[in-house]
Amino acid sequence: MQRIGKNVLKLSGQTYISGSAGVAAKTESEGPLASDFDFTFPDDGIGQPTWEKAESELHKKAVMLAIEKAGRTPDKIDCIFAGDLLNQCTGSTFGIRDMNIPFVGMYGACSTMVLSLAAASVFVDSGAMQTAIASTSSHFCSAEKQFRFPLEYGGQRTPTAQRTATAAGAAVLEYGKPDGIIIDKVMFGRIVDKGITDPNNMGAAMAPAAARTIADYLTDTGTKPEDYDLILTGDLGYVGSQLLYELLQKNENIDISGVHNDCGLMIFDRDNQDVHAGGSGCGCCASVLCSHIFKRMRKGELKRILVVATGALLSPVTSMQNESIPGIAHAVELVVS
Amino acid sequence: MQRIGKNVLKLSGQTYISGSAGVAAKTESEGPLASDFDFTFPDDGIGQPTWEKAESELHKKAVMLAIEKAGRTPDKIDCIFAGDLLNQCTGSTFGIRDMNIPFVGMYGACSTMVLSLAAASVFVDSGAMQTAIASTSSHFCSAEKQFRFPLEYGGQRTPTAQRTATAAGAAVLEYGKPDGIIIDKVMFGRIVDKGITDPNNMGAAMAPAAARTIADYLTDTGTKPEDYDLILTGDLGYVGSQLLYELLQKNENIDISGVHNDCGLMIFDRDNQDVHAGGSGCGCCASVLCSHIFKRMRKGELKRILVVATGALLSPVTSMQNESIPGIAHAVELVVS
Q1: Which string of DSSP letters, residue by residue, matches A65-104?
Q2: Which of A65, A255, B108, B170 has the fewest CB atoms nearer than 10 Å to its CB?
Q3: ipTM of the predicted structure?
Q4: Which of residues 139-168 of A touch B (CB under 8 A)?
């Protein structure tokens, strides 16, 4: 492992993704990526009596499928790095509690997939672990209930609001004999708080953190946006993506619009699905990355990508106490061997 | 780094604690460890308008003091590993948001100090980071409000209940020229759920996880309890500690009672302070370890200790949905060079 500049860690080139799975529920399976998900549930209840249990079941499905695709069993996994948006991260813990795998709990709000992937990569690349899983989940109904209002209330959502994806994703990382998708570099972001206070506009709260991480990453690595087949943000949605272009163009003279896409804009069809500014939630980036994107990489359609997942580090309590919304963005660079 | 057995990681012997601080508030500063805390606040409000902001301020104080004691400034810290009990871990994020340090968010409930310390150690020992901080916090009033009832309700607490410490702790880890306290080994625990459902008896919920981690650790390293000057659990309190002895004795034929102590039993005087089964909360283990214990190690009174912090991975929602309480316990072995 080698530090590049102030922020980036270059790994050995031996840490790779040996299996992955993205799973989703009804609305996601009616969207543009339907055929790429590794498993879809016909409704958002996932056969469970509560939304929280449904989220845990989604999480479990993604992890078990990823382990299966890696040709492993849970007893061959050294560690799982997981977290989610639910209070005390119970979406993850209750999903994985019966797997008997050493567990490192992570919290990065909607950046959790990339945070977990980056942390797990450091553990695997350093030899601390031979195999590790990174996973996360989110559920529209458990998130609305917890962060805004229970669905039964019938609250109106603003045009800037995003729809939390009912989805989960998991990736198995291994060391040696790299085959397919390699984790080439990782970067842990810094908190950026530009004073945004509107909890119905997560894109605006998170865009400054994404801009900072992307600018720092390109500077440290001496690369340009065109060096990547794709710069993929987690879930800025429509509002946040436009703001990201503007911030990078005005402050850094960087134009990423030609190579950028956002998981929140990919998972739903904004013209024909009632999702306002797009998708969001930990499970959005996780499911899109671990199914659609990794499939495209394995087909050779994408050879080098920079994934930047953003998180809004607020809680309903902090917003009610008139606090602004701190944002963070973590990055991983993935290449096909 | 080297794996020992199925669970333990032996580090290089070069990763050490270059600075640490434990800070606390009123009730803690009236307890037995008063003179060992690096800073105490005269009341639980910490000069802030809300309990949540008070917790963030506590967290900030611990981190800034630890950096100062390490002879560093925030710009020389490569990464901070932090988390806490508040929903969406806002105790940590709002405490550190202005420090401009790359941030890895962790969630391990009351095990967070050892989880963060263990994760940060792997990063530093592997060369991924040169300097890293592990920190956490808790606040009696923010925890009661969130997990049980607002204080104004005047709810009765059961004899098995523990008092969340209003405290925080932080440690700075560095690589090379080891001086003082070295992180010798780390272990990430597995979730253990024995079906305990009483959210007013955290000790009982967490003791099985502590027993498993201690038994696995001793087996993997081929050591006995007497090989340690102290086996320190995070915050099992009185009920949990008794259960831990019983579980280890009956199931594993291991007697740790001669070398064991628990931060939850050390931070308060149960005979003269109204704290029921003892102290708890992430900040309990963090503040006791980073002030009292590290001071004793630096004085040479303790040369080799095993710290096992436990977490109860529940939320109020999971308890209301009739779920049992999964527990976890992470471990670090510290030695004085």
Answers
A1: HHHHHTT--GGG--EEEEEESSGGGHHHHHHHTTS---EE
A2: A255
A3: 0.98
A4: 146
Length in residues, chain B: 337
Cα dihedral B241, B243, B249, B250, rounded to 10, equals -170
Residue A297 per-residue DSSP state: H
Distance from CA of B35 to the nearest CA of A (A): 33
Residues of A in contact with B74 (CB under 8 A): none
Task: List, as one string, the DSSP characters of A8-45.
Answer: EEE--S-EEEEEEEEEE-HHHHTSTTGGGSSEE-SSTT
Find chain A residues with C-beta within 8 A of B100's C-beta: 190-191
Topology (CATH level 3) of domain A181-336: Peroxisomal Thiolase; Chain A, domain 1 (3.40.47)
- Residues of chain B found within 8 Å of residue A100, distances taken between Cβ atoms: 190-191
Contact B211, B255 (CB under 8 A): no
pLDDT tens by residue, B166-204:
999 999 999 998 779 999 999 999 999 999 999 999 999
Q: Which residues have a Cβ under 8 Å from the Cβ of A242 and sit 6 or more positions away? A: none
Instruction: Give the Cα separation of A112 and A285 in Å (integer).
Output: 9
Whole-number pLDDT of residue A294:
98
Integer Rg of chain A from CA:
18
Q: For residue range B286-314, what is the model confidence (pLDDT) as tens digits? A: 999 999 999 999 999 999 999 999 999 99
Q: In whole angstroms, give the CA distance from residue A288 to residue B193.
A: 32
Distance of CA A47 to the CA centre of its chain: 25
CB contact under 8 A, B321 and A52: yes
**Stretch 82-101 of chain A: residues touching chain B, C-beta under 8 Å:** 83, 85-90, 93-94, 96-98, 100-101
Residue range A17-52, pLDDT digits in tens = 999 999 999 999 999 999 999 999 999 999 999 999
All CATH 3.40.47.40 domain ranges of chain A, comma separated, are: 2-175, 181-336
Residue B58: CA count within 13 A, CB half-sphere: 39
Reduced to 3 states, what is the DSSP secondary structure of residue A162?
Answer: strand
* Contact between B122 and A123 using a beta-carbon 8 Å cutoff: yes
B21 touches A at CB < 8 Å: no
Model pTM?
A: 0.98
The closest alpha carbon to A186, from A327, A312, A302, A329, belongs to A329
| Rounded-to-integer distance, Cα B50 and Cα B142, Å | 9
Three-state secondary-structure class, residue A282: helix
Place of tokens 């607490």: B157
Closest Cα partner for A45 from A160, A110, A140, A117? A140
Q: State residue A41 phi and psi, 5-degree precision.
A: -95, 140
- Give the H/E segment covering residue B49: none
The answer to whether the CB atoms of A191 and B96 lie below 8 A apart is: yes
- Facing residue for A50 by CB, picked from B94, B108, B321: B321
Q: Are A112 and A83 in contact (CB under 8 A)?
A: yes
